[in-house]
C-alpha cells in the first residue's frame, strides 16, 4: 500500500536480546507469564516498552485474515455522536468484504494506547482513530504501524496519518458568531465532564478566540457529574447562581444542552427568552425537544463513508488525499 512505512518493526528476537533472555522465554511471557520468573518478567516488560514491541497475534495460520479486518478506536461507543460514523464506515467496508473491529477508550489516552497495541498485534488492514490527540506511546505505535492509519473527526495539516474531518476550533468560532449575530452579549461555554475530551476543549478555545476578538470576556464551566444530562443541569445551575448571568450558553455537546434545557424548564426559565441554549452534535433527539435545539451538525456520516473509501483505495494500490476537510452545518432552531 502506498503509505506503508519502511521502519522495521521490532521482533520477538529483538526483545529477547534486549532483555538478555531466550526467545522461548519471551514467548512464554506472552502466552504463559506465570512460567516466567519475576526478574525476567520485569526485564522483558521493560524491553517491550523500550522497543515498542507488538506481538504478532495473527501468526499461526491467521495471517491471511488480517487483510479483511479494519480496527477502530472511538472515545465512546454507547454515545450517539459517533454512531453515524461507525455505521457508514461499517457499511462501506462490508460491501467489499471487510469487517470492522471496535474498541472504546472513553476519552482515556492510556485506554486508547492499550487498544491500539492490541489491535496492531492482529495486523489489521488499517487502523482508524478518532482525533489527533494521543499518548506518546500511541504516537510511537502509529509511527511504526506498517499499515494505513486514518485519524477521523479532526484536521491538522501537519500530521502524518491520513486525516478526515474538520476543525473543532472553527466550530467554536462559528457557534459564537451565530449567537452574537442574534444579539446575545454574555455567552458562556460548558465543557464535557469527561476530562479527556480534547476536541471539546478545542471547541472551547475557538469560542474564547471569537469572544476575545469581539472584546468580550469568555466564561466557561466544567461540570463534575459523569452523566451528561445531569452535568448539563449542574452547569446551568452554576451559571444561573453567578453574576453576571449569561444570556446564552454554548455546550460541548447536545446531551449537555438537553440536560440544561430540561433543568431550565423545571426552574421556570424560558428558552430562549431568559437563556438561549446551543449545542454540538445534532443528536437524534435535538429537533424533537421543545423548544428544538439549535446546534452544529458534524459530518458524521460523511467521515465514515470517506474513511471507507480511503481504506479501499489504499488496498487497491491507489493514493487518496492525505487530508480531507468536510464541512459542519449550523442548524438554527428554536433554543437560540
Automatic annotation (TrEMBL):
PROSITE patterns: HTH_LACI_2 (PS50932). SMART domains: HTH_LACI. InterPro entries: HTH_LacI (IPR000843), LacI/GalR-like_sensor (IPR046335), Lambda_DNA-bd_dom_sf (IPR010982), Peripla_BP_I (IPR028082). Transmembrane segments: none annotated. This is LacI family transcription regulator. GO terms for molecular function: DNA-binding transcription factor activity; transcription cis-regulatory region binding. It comes from the Bacteria. It comes from Roseateles depolymerans. CDD domains: HTH_LacI, PBP1_GntR.
Amino acid at each position: 500500500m502506498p503509505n506503508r512505512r519502511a521502519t522495521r518493526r521490532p521482533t520477538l528476537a529483538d526483545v529477547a536480546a534486549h532483555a538478555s533472555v531466550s526467545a522461548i522465554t519471551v514467548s512464554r511471557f506472552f502466552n504463559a507469564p506465570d512460567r516466567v520468573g519475576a526478574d525476567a518478567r520485569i526485564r522483558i516488560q521493560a524491553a517491550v516498552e523500550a522497543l515498542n514491541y507488538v506481538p504478532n497475534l495473527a501468526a499461526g495460520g491467521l495471517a491471511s485474515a488480517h487483510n479483511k479486518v479494519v480496527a477502530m478506536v472511538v472515545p465512546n461507543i454507547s454515545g450517539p455522536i459517533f454512531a453515524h460514523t461507525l455505521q457508514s464506515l461499517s457499511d462501506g467496508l462490508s460491501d467489499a468484504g471487510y469487517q470492522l473491529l471496535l474498541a472504546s477508550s472513553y476519552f482515556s489516552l492510556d485506554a486508547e494506547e492499550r487498544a491500539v497495541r492490541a489491535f496492531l498485534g492482529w495486523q489489521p488492514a488499517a487502523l482508524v482513530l478518532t482525533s489527533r490527540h494521543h499518548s506518546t506511546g500511541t504516537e510511537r505505535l502509529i509511527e511504526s504501524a506498517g499499515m494505513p492509519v486514518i485519524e477521523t473527526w479532526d484536521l491538522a495539516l501537519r500530521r502524518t496519518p491520513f486525516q478526515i474531518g474538520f476543525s473543532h476550533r472553527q466550530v467554536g468560532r462559528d457557534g459564537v458568531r451565530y449567537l452574537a449575530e442574534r444579539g446575545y452579549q454574555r455567552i458562556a461555554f460548558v465543557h464535557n465532564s469527561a476530562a479527556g475530551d480534547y476536541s471539546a476543549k478545542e471547541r472551547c478555545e475557538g469560542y474564547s478566540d471569537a469572544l476575545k476578538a469581539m472584546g468580550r470576556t469568555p466564561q466557561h464551566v466544567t461540570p463534575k457529574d459523569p452523566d451528561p444530562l445531569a452535568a448539563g443541569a449542574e452547569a446551568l445551575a452554576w451559571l444561573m447562581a453567578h453574576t453576571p448571568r449569561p444570556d446564552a450558553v454554548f455546550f460541548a455537546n447536545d446531551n449537555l444542552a438537553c440536560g440544561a434545557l430540561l433543568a431550565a424548564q423545571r426552574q421556570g426559565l424560558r428558552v430562549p427568552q431568559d437563556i438561549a441554549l446551543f449545542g454540538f452534535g445534532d443528536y437524534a433527539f435535538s429537533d424533537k425537544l421543545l423548544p428544538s435545539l439549535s446546534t452544529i451538525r458534524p459530518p458524521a456520516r460523511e467521515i465514515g463513508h470517506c474513511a471507507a473509501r480511503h481504506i479501499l483505495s489504499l488496498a487497491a494500490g491507489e493514493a487518496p488525499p492525505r487530508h480531507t476537510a468536510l464541512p459542519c452545518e449550523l442548524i438554527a432552531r428554536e433554543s437560540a
